[in-house]
Specification:
This protein is an all-alpha fold. The chain contains 25 helices and no strands. It has helices at residues 2-19, 21-41, 50-79, 81-95, 97-100, 105-122, 125-133, 139-143, 145-161, 166-186, 192-197, 201-211, 218-231, 239-245, 249-267, 270-275, 277-284, 290-311, 317-343, 355-369, 373-381, 388-417, 419-439, 448-454, 462-468.
């Protein structure tokens, strides 16, 4: 029996990992500019102007991903999360060719814009797929995989970028995650939640048999999913009907919570760290090799996502979010102190060359404990099936819009306010997650149907309310 349970668990984990390969693509997209901006400055074959182009090349994927998220939400609702990944993997791979074969900075802009669209499409899909196929006891672990995959993609991008020029890095960014994603998703079944919502109950049972033990009553689980869909008006409905459903508190409140968690995480400055890592070390001028320091940051980020994956189902979402907010604040405060001392004529930072790297490592580690995986995990757990298409669109739009604002304004803020004030502002925003963490409902160990019922009424039975916050 134990071997059977372990095999089923491994099967669910393997499926979540396959779906999360799309998030490896996201890691390459978001980290690409960090290594290539310095290369573009030295490349005379392209009409690159640093003051004009750096902010846009770093942040364009964030703004175009908003369009991708809206399109992706509708596509996922119509054809299912698995088929969405199958149909978009190859076009994403081809979109990198705009950058790889660019003969002007305009084509680099086009490539970054188009890859950003796929960033928006991909962002919610692996999270939705992982949470819908997972058993409650391991949903936190599996829900953390997409963020771990983003971190892995960023780390691989840093490693390849340290030995490749920006054109070959674009080709590598397409092939490394794109090909295995397309192949792996061809052999996996569709989400049982989506199949049930579409009324394909026999297919839903087949899907669940793939992800559950032989002794599991898949018919009863499908019936429970179907009953919840009917009860919460989550059956097949139009986009306009979904908009109308946002008038109900059980639909708009969880979306608002996810929106706020995304806002806190992005305003803590994470988009700056991923897009400008090399530039930050160059500005610090500590003598540390910028490319090597960036790889170390990427490695620590990846390790932190694995630690978070282990802790999410043990410690819970609320404690990790609070710890993440406090630790991220400390990292940003620390790097701000370094730049403050560096700008002061009364101090010498010659003996503090280690501080920028140590500060960024502290920030990245604590940020990825909570701010990294938890917003995506909550988008799969909290947003009701009835409004999941629009709800995930709102969530990814929030993520993308805030990442765009932070990425685009970093060069402007450092010129206007100085570098250390900019990092201290990010530190202040990081702390906002403490308040949000205290108010957040705990979803650890709850089924998706139980989580939906939490928002259906402000008044709950004492034992249920207590359980939700354990």
């Amino acid at each position: 029996m134990t071997k059977s349970v372990n095999l089923i668990t491994l099967k669910q984990i393997a499926a979540a990992i396959c779906a999360s390969l799309s998030s490896v693509s996201i890691g390459f997209i978001t980290a690409y500019s960090s290594l290539t901006l310095s290369q573009l400055r030295a490349d005379s074959s392209i009409n690159y102007d640093d003051e004009r182009d750096s902010g846009w090349i770093a942040s364009l994927p964030s703004i175009s991903s908003i369009a991708g998220s809206l399109v992706g939400g509708i596509v996922m609702d119509q054809i299912g999360p698995r088929m969405t990944l199958v149909l978009t993997a190859l076009p994403c791979l081809l979109s990198w060719s705009f950058i790889a074969f660019a003969n002007s900075v305009v084509l680099v802009y086009v490539g970054r814009f188009v890859t950003g669209i796929f960033l928006g499409i991909f962002s919610p899909v692996p999270q939705v797929y992982a949470t819908e196929i997972a058993e409650p006891r391991i949903r936190g672990l599996m829900g953390a995989f997409p963020e771990a995959a983003v971190a892995l993609g960023s780390m691989l991008c840093y490693i390849f970028g340290s030995v490749m020029d920006w054109r070959w890095l674009a080709i590598t960014s397409a092939i490394v995650p794109g090909v295995p994603l397309f192949i792996s998703m061809l052999i996996l079944p569709e989400s049982p939640q989506w199949l049930t919502k579409r009324g394909r109950l026999e297919k839903a049972e087949e899907s669940l048999r793939f992800f559950r033990s032989k002794s599991h009553n898949v018919k009863a689980e499908v019936e429970m999913i179907n009953a919840n869909i009917q009860e919460t008006e989550g059956a097949e409905i139009s986009i306009m009907d979904q908009i109308k459903l946002f008038r109900k508190v059980q639909n708009w409140k969880p979306v608002l919570i996810v929106f706020l968690v995304f806002m806190c995480g992005q305003f803590s400055g994470f988009a700056v760290v991923t897009a400008y890592t090399v530039d930050i070390f160059d500005i610090a001028n500590t003598g540390i090799d910028s490319s090597k320091a960036t790889i170390i940051v990427g490695l620590v980020r990846f390790i932190a996502t694995l630690v978070s994956a282990v802790l999410l189902d043990r410690a819970g979402r609320k404690p990790l979010l609070i710890i993440s907010a406090i630790g991220s604040c400390g990292g940003m405060l620390s790097i701000g102190v370094f730049f403050y001392l560096k700008d002061s004529p009364d101090y010498s930072v010659d003996s503090l060359g280690w501080l920028p790297l140590a500060s960024l490592l502290m920030y990245v580690f604590f940020n990825e404990l909570g701010y990294g995986p938890i917003p995506w995990l909550l988008s799969g757990e909290l947003i009701p099936l009835a409004v999941r298409t629009l709800g995930n669109g709102v969530a990814v739009t929030a993520y993308s819009l805030f990442a765009f604002i932070i990425g685009l304004t970093f060069p402007l803020l450092t010129d206007l306010l100085s570098t250390y004030v900019t990092f201290w502002l990010y530190a202040l925003f990081s702390l906002s997650g403490v308040v949000l963490g205290l108010l957040l409902p705990e979803t650890r160990g709850k089924t998706l149907e139980e989580i939906e019922k939490f928002f259906t009424s402000e008044k709950k039975a004492p034992q249920e309310s207590m359980y939700m916050y354990m």
